[in-house]
Amino acid sequence: MRAAAPHSGSDLSAAIHNHPRVCPRLRVGGERFAGDADTYDRFMGRYSVRLAPSFADFAQVSSGQRVLDVGCGPGALTTELVRRLEAAAVAAADPSEQFVAAARERHPGVDVRVAAAEELPFADGEFDAALAQLVVHFMKDPVRGLAEMARITRGGGVVAVCVWDHAGGLTPLAPFWDAVHWLDPSAADESRLAGGREGHLTELMTKAGLRDVQEIALPVLVEHTTFEEWWEPFTLGVGPAGVYLASLDSERRADVRARCNERLGPGPVTIESRAWTARGDV
Question: Which superfamily, per CATH, for 9-281?
Answer without folding.
Answer: Vaccinia Virus protein VP39 (3.40.50.150)
